Amino acid sequence: MGIRLPGSLPAKKFIGQTLMAARKAASAPLDVPKGFFTVYVGETQKRFVVPISYLSHPPFQGLLSRSEEEYGFDYPTGGLTIPCEEETFISITSCLSWS
């Protein structure tokens, strides 16, 4: 029995599809270290580089669920896009960096 995110996909499949979409969108730009990936956040699509370990945290998974609801797996910027305010994203990721 696996964890299920809101919606219909099991967490493992959802994370796998998200990683595949992120890899497809950009073939590891030089400024993204191994073990990290980029996301675009907010109305201005500000770019953030975050650790892959965030994918296992429920608060970040909630952001991914919102992204899936809004965009599916076809992101307008060509990269993983999170539909939330930059301040919200920073607040969530700041908490994750301390856990």
Classify the secondary structure makeup into a structural class: alpha+beta
Q: Strand arrangement, largest sheet?
A: 2-1-3
- Share of residues in strands: 15-25%
User: Percent helix among the residues?
Assistant: 40-55%
What's the total number of strands? 3
Report, as a whole number of angstroms, the end-to-end distance: 25 Å
Number of helical elements: 3
Kindly provide the radius of gyration, computed on alpha-carbon positions and rounded to a whole number of angstroms.
13 Å
Whole-number average pLDDT? 80
Q: Biggest β-sheet: count, sense, barrel? A: 3 strands, mixed
Globally, the shape reads globular
Outline the structure in words.
With 99 residues, this protein is an alpha+beta fold. The protein is 41% helix and 15% strand. It has a three-stranded mixed beta sheet with strand order 2-1-3.
Topology overview:
Elements: H1 11-25, E1 36-41, E2 46-51, H2 58-71, E3 80-82, H3 86-97
Parallel strand pairs: 1-3
Antiparallel strand pairs: 1-2
Using brief descriptors, characterize the structure shown:
single chain, 99 residues, alpha+beta, 3 helices, 3 strands, 15% strand
Short description, anyone?
With 99 residues, this protein is an alpha+beta fold.
